[in-house]
Amino acid sequence: MFKVIDFIQTSRDRYLEELGRFLAIPSISALPQHAGDVRQCAGWLADEMRRIGLENVSVMETPGHPVVYGDWLHAEGAPTILFYGHYDVQPVDPVELWESPPFEATVRDGEIYARGAADDKGQVFMHLKAIEAWLSQEGRLPVNIRLLIEGEEEVGSAHLEEFVQTHRDLLQADVVVVSDSAMFDRGVPSICYSLRGLAYFQIDVRGTSTDLHSGSFGGAVVNPAMALVQILAQMKDRSGRVKIPGFYDDVRPLSDEERAAWRRLPFNEKQFQRSIGAPKLSGESGYTTLERLWARPTFEINGLLSGFTGEGAKTVIPATAMAKVSMRLVPDQDPDRIGDQFEAYVKKIAPKTVDVKVTRMHGGRPWITEYDNRFVQAAGRAIEQGFGKAPVYCREGGSIPVISTFQRELGLPAVLFGIGLPDENAHAPNERLDLGNFHNGIVASACLYDEIARAGR
Amino acid sequence: MFKVIDFIQTSRDRYLEELGRFLAIPSISALPQHAGDVRQCAGWLADEMRRIGLENVSVMETPGHPVVYGDWLHAEGAPTILFYGHYDVQPVDPVELWESPPFEATVRDGEIYARGAADDKGQVFMHLKAIEAWLSQEGRLPVNIRLLIEGEEEVGSAHLEEFVQTHRDLLQADVVVVSDSAMFDRGVPSICYSLRGLAYFQIDVRGTSTDLHSGSFGGAVVNPAMALVQILAQMKDRSGRVKIPGFYDDVRPLSDEERAAWRRLPFNEKQFQRSIGAPKLSGESGYTTLERLWARPTFEINGLLSGFTGEGAKTVIPATAMAKVSMRLVPDQDPDRIGDQFEAYVKKIAPKTVDVKVTRMHGGRPWITEYDNRFVQAAGRAIEQGFGKAPVYCREGGSIPVISTFQRELGLPAVLFGIGLPDENAHAPNERLDLGNFHNGIVASACLYDEIARAGR
After folding, report:
1. Catalytic residue ranges of B
2. What's the complex ipTM?
3. Do A90 and A154 form a contact (C-beta atoms < 8 A)?
4. Is residue A269 part of a domain?
5. Taking a contact as any Cβ pair under 8 Å apart, which residues of chain A between 324 and 383 contact chain B?
6. Which residue is closest to B366 within chain A, CA to CA?
7. Which helix (H) or strand (E) holds B343?
8. A107 and A225 both lie in a single domain
């Protein structure tokens, strides 16, 4: 293990040079004209995986961009990690806002700038370098590992679920490790152990067969936009609680221990408020901002459309009104059950003077791997060794669909082992990765394999 | 008077031929390429007015299309009518839906088809023919009359208010007569004696400086679309009454006599409901459909826009939400006072967690000339002579801006002497005018001048 760490510490310059080659390939999955680059990147990655000693390396076809697979499975009796990452990147427009070319990695002020530096080539490469260090210095890894690096994460992982379903044997493991997220804050390494789920709906309200003149008809017919706002206004009470009956039935309460831990986090409410330009923060009574974001479900209106929305005044009674609404769900809420409750409630409160249709658009389960799970704790120790300080344990308010896919299809606990920073412009111009975090991350990854081996199967 | 009526009865064929020439000129005021046709139509109209014996006929310039003016002022001691109509027409697209060319008047099944037949050339021409009959058969008119025929009604009468303000002396009169509307129903001639006014607003709500990710921020910041729907939902109570404090203060109550008269009107609620394709009619408790449409104020949402409104699902918390709302006003509500009440109420109920801006877009006073006004009753008798049955007295739910202009600028009572039908496609393909109503209308117009003379100054 000392040799492994030593090797990593003395390879810094080489790592940068190699990462630069990975970052130079414009593997933009969303743009058809870059399909060849995406494939070239998969080939480059497979070559690198073979070079460092991974086995069974293969560029595996999907109906879209290929998946790159490789493994090392000789740690008999030890747990098996399924590592997930992606080699595709976001488009670069508006390219004129980049201070250096997006596909020429450039180091400035201790950060490496390039599209994909943080999301996710840098974080994938950190594991490849940790594996290389183990295999070159010790001739072995302490754990078994399977790597699944996809090429379609930035286009919604269109074929990943199907790939997982048809390759269950190839993906057998004890724990999923994902390095595709950010730490809590600069200087505050973290382990995220829970994500919220999602239930997304469209509500369509129809009043009449066509738009009507508000003078000739106003007062004698229902206005579907008014019916819609009356429905939506009944979704939350004054204390910020969602009024859908049964909505909170399956919400796992926060433990006193978790609440206490979160209160110790270096989170500045004022700064958060200023950063989003809100006149005031607001949310469910009785909870702090972090609790509202991480452990409480929400009801949000995502879109509204009805009638005349252009410049000026048009005296129309709209025929229809539409809302997109969604709820962020927390353990142990179930998007299907929430969908049933929501539809029943809308049906109950909708005026009988309009036709109301609810369409289920999209759903995802919330995810949690308890922070006292042995793999989560192993990851925490690895972070401490890599970064010189214990990580904070946090949740996140968003969803990472692939985590839900692995949970649902393989039933595995997962560890989010992310070393990006919240302000590294993952989907914006001037994406970058902090080089200190990158190097500490390689050390932490090398330690992670050892810690997971010690945690046992 | 007998000679006048006789002359009208024997001139039917000639009237059609002459009306056809008026309708042949494509005086589409909205389209710049027809500006020359609009001017040619003004010239044609002025020639016709001179030919029938009107005096001081003039094509008067405005910053837009010209106004045609003419008068006959030799009925000493008799009242003076200010007649308003317009010679411009709507565009004809989609022209392929016309069964005969829009500018070749064609008679089918007792109706004359052409753009402008009902709105408003046919109704203007009806008065010219009545005046012609009087002057040619009696050598005089029983009243004084000033005709103001504008060329911009279909583009919002852009310069009419200015014209009226700068020609007050030229337009001095005792009563305004407008023939630019429809009767209650086929076979049900009517006199409309009141129109609703309008107060139109835009509400803009801002929550944060930019759209936010609903996962990363949902639950801890206010959603401006939710704030907006909560504001809008408080505008009406369950009984359909508007909740803005003071909103009903100036509403003139319906008399028992009016309510009784309206209940006798041949109005079929079921048919009305089917015609607009509504699952159910609805409105303010305690009022019939016609009362809700004609004599009660409304609150309508005319438009809603916020966040993501395209296909599919986007998990965004919108930064802003917008609504267009308007109220139809009835006598004696004042749009400015209503605006003050509305703004104060929005300010009071808006959450403090968002910025809310109310913009006043447009306002118009309600109009009423009591149905027992002597000119209104004179018009009723004229209708009875022309159509062989007494008219019904009704109101309308919409607004006719020029009526408000005359009311505000000249302070005159007005008579809506309209002989179109509600289904004559005024702004649609295959516009038409019922020839029976056209001929009865000429007789009624001839009688109107006599009846107004009898009513006295």
Report:
1. 88, 153
2. 0.88
3. yes
4. no
5. 324, 326, 328, 351-355, 361-362
6. A215
7. helix B335-349
8. no
The answer as to whether A284 is a domain residue is no
Collect all residues of chain B within an 8 Å Cβ-Cβ radius of residue A292.
219-220
pLDDT digits (tens, 9 = 90+) for A250-265: 999 999 999 999 999 9
Catalytic site positions of A: 88, 153
A156 and A89 co-located in one domain: yes
Does residue B48 sit within a domain? yes
CA distance B158 to chain A (A): 15
Any A CB within 8 A of B395 CB: no
CA dist B338 and B363 (Å) reads: 10
Shared-domain flag, residues A309 and A451: no
Domain boundary residue, one of B307, B337, B364: B364
Structural contact between residues A110 and A12, judged by C-beta atoms closer than 8 angstroms: no
Establish if A40 belongs to a structural domain. Answer: yes
A129 interfaces chain B, CB cutoff of 8 Å: no
Write out chain A residues lying below 8 Å of B243, CB-based.
none
Q: Is B284 on the interface with A (CB under 8 A)?
A: yes
Q: Could you give the CA distance from residue A103 to residue A92 in angstroms, rounded to a whole number?
A: 9
Same domain, B19 and B164: yes
Interface contact flag, A326 B313, Cβ < 8 Å: yes
Same-domain pairing of A311 and A419: no
Residue of B nearest to A398 (CA): B215
Chain A residues in contact with B298 (beta carbon < 8 A): 214, 218-219
pTM of the model: 0.87
CA distance B365 to B414: 14
Distance CA A197, CA B142 (A): 82
Interface A–B counts its CB contacts (< 8 A) at: 266
Q: Which domain holds residue A331?
A: 197-251+297-363
Q: Which of B292, B308, B294 is nearest to B394 (CA)?
A: B294
Q: Which residue blocks in A295-373 are alpha helix, DSSP H? A: 335-349
Contact present, B233 and A342 (Cβ < 8 Å): no
Do B212 and B352 lie in one domain? The reply is yes
Q: Which of A309, A352, A397 has its CB closest to that of B303?
A: A309
Q: Any idea what the CATH number is for the domain that residue B359 is in?
A: 3.30.70.360
pLDDT tier, A72 (very low <50, low <70, confident <90, very high otherwise): very high
Chosen domain end from B364, B388, B420: B364
Going by the DSSP 8-state scheme, the letter that residue A391 receives in this structure is: P
Closest-CA distance, A118 to chain B, in angstroms, reads 18
* Pair B21, B116 in one domain: yes
Q: Write the CA distances from A139 to A69, A134, A167, integer angstroms.
A: 21, 7, 28
Given CB atoms, is B307 within the 8 Å cutoff of chain A? yes
User: Does B307 sit within 8 Å of A324, measured CB to CB?
Assistant: yes
Local confidence pLDDT in tens for the 457 residues of chain B: 899 999 999 999 999 999 999 999 999 999 999 999 999 999 999 999 999 999 999 999 999 999 999 999 999 999 999 999 999 999 998 899 999 999 999 999 999 999 999 999 999 999 999 999 999 999 999 999 999 999 999 988 989 999 999 999 999 999 999 999 999 999 999 999 999 999 999 999 999 998 999 988 999 999 999 999 999 999 999 999 999 999 999 999 999 999 999 999 999 999 999 988 888 899 999 999 999 999 999 999 999 999 999 988 888 999 999 999 999 999 999 999 999 999 999 999 999 999 999 999 988 899 999 989 999 999 999 999 999 999 999 999 998 888 988 988 999 999 999 999 988 998 899 999 999 999 999 999 999 999 999 999 8
CATH number at residue B82: 3.40.630.10
**Nearest-neighbour CA in chain A from B211: distance (Å):** 9
* Three-state secondary structure call for residue A45: helix
Q: Do A300 and B317 touch (CB under 8 A)?
A: yes
CA atoms of B381 and B415, how far apart (whole Å): 13
Per CB-CB distance under 8 Å, the chain B contacts of A297 are 219
A305 shares its domain with A386: no
The tally of domains found in chain B comes to: 2
CB A323 within 8 A of CB A203: yes
Contact residues, A window 152-171, toward B, CB-based 8 Å cutoff? none
Number of Cβ within a 10 Å radius of residue B274:
11
pLDDT in tens, A315-346: 899 999 999 999 999 999 999 999 999 999 99
